[in-house]
Amino acid sequence: MDTDSLNAFTQPAALNQFLVENVITPGEKRKLIKPTSSNNPKLEELKLLLIDWINTTLKEEHIVVKSLEEDLYDGLVLHHLMENLGSLKLDVDKIALTEKKQRQKLSVILEAVAKCLQLEESQLKWSVEAILAKDLLSTLHLLVAIAKHFQPSLDFPPNVHVETITIENTSKGLKTANGVEYITGSKENSEEQSTDDAFDELFSRAPERLDDVKKVFLQFVNQHVEKLGLNVKDMESQFADGVILLLLIGQLEGYFLNLRDFFLTPASTTEMMHSSEAFQLKSESLCSKELLHNVNLALDLLTDGGLLNFSVNSEGESWQTELSGVALLISWLAKQGD
């Protein structure tokens, strides 16, 4: 970004016209979409998608949105949208006619949005004043965040970005800065986030379903490792050291795993030969290093084989949670099914 630039546009007249349409009061700082991005095809596609999504969601309430800037600034549509999607009741009047009432209404709505989406203030890309001022950039960020949370399957156009201008009205005159801002990310990132959200949902809200899923996976695992004379009864403890996972990879993916390349009994005194070097386990701290070696080797093999489509943290206790094992096996079974 070109900071402290005094000319956001090639011609001063263009900037003057822009400021006529977007009033920047003394002391105010605003980030706006440049006119050069107003006809961006991807931006138009995103706007139409959001309008269609809102109208479909609020069809039974006979609400029809035609313009994101003109139809959302007073909070009425956002009010209906949040109550519909979030199954909540907002303690504010449906209709606010004065600017003061609209500001109060938006404050309540946006507070509810931040709470539902579990966002800190520093993460918000919108504000009451920006929405009230019909700021398209802020409105888009808000709607995309709401839609991704409540309807993650919505097919957003990827990598929608716009040229922006940040204008600050200082005592010395206008200070401007140019930049580029992304409104949607890549599809790969969205799919990874959706996968993480699905696992979090399963873990936090449907523990009884998780037990059923674990039983199915235990049958799947034992069907293959029984050939090696092994039996898995507890996923959390028996997957933690990476040994069962490595042996399962060898069975399913046809990998030849040299026993010298990993620790077969990482929790006991053992010796590992690798690359002509001997590693003698002498302390408990080395046990954790052996465990980490096994897990990282397994994750590397899965990643190289295209079987791992989400991130797994092998450090510390996080790998030993049931969530990591279940998520990993769900991904694996999906690939096996393909």
From TrEMBL:
<keyword id="KW-0206">Cytoskeleton</keyword>
<dbReference type="InterPro" id="IPR036872">
    <property type="entry name" value="CH_dom_sf"/>
</dbReference>
<keyword id="KW-0677">Repeat</keyword>
<dbReference type="GO" id="GO:0030036">
    <property type="term" value="P:actin cytoskeleton organization"/>
</dbReference>
<dbReference type="GO" id="GO:0071963">
    <property type="term" value="P:establishment or maintenance of cell polarity regulating cell shape"/>
</dbReference>
<dbReference type="GO" id="GO:0005925">
    <property type="term" value="C:focal adhesion"/>
</dbReference>
<keyword id="KW-0009">Actin-binding</keyword>
<keyword id="KW-0130">Cell adhesion</keyword>
<dbReference type="InterPro" id="IPR028433">
    <property type="entry name" value="Parvin"/>
</dbReference>
<protein>
    <recommendedName>
        <fullName>Calponin-homology (CH) domain-containing protein</fullName>
    </recommendedName>
</protein>
<dbReference type="Pfam" id="PF00307">
    <property type="entry name" value="CH"/>
</dbReference>
<dbReference type="GO" id="GO:0030031">
    <property type="term" value="P:cell projection assembly"/>
</dbReference>
<dbReference type="GO" id="GO:0015629">
    <property type="term" value="C:actin cytoskeleton"/>
</dbReference>
<keyword id="KW-0963">Cytoplasm</keyword>
<feature type="domain" description="Calponin-homology (CH)">
    <location>
        <begin position="44"/>
        <end position="151"/>
    </location>
</feature>
<feature type="domain" description="Calponin-homology (CH)">
    <location>
        <begin position="211"/>
        <end position="338"/>
    </location>
</feature>
<dbReference type="GO" id="GO:0034446">
    <property type="term" value="P:substrate adhesion-dependent cell spreading"/>
</dbReference>
<comment type="similarity">
    <text>Belongs to the parvin family.</text>
</comment>
<dbReference type="InterPro" id="IPR001715">
    <property type="entry name" value="CH_dom"/>
</dbReference>
<dbReference type="GO" id="GO:0003779">
    <property type="term" value="F:actin binding"/>
</dbReference>
<dbReference type="GO" id="GO:0005737">
    <property type="term" value="C:cytoplasm"/>
</dbReference>
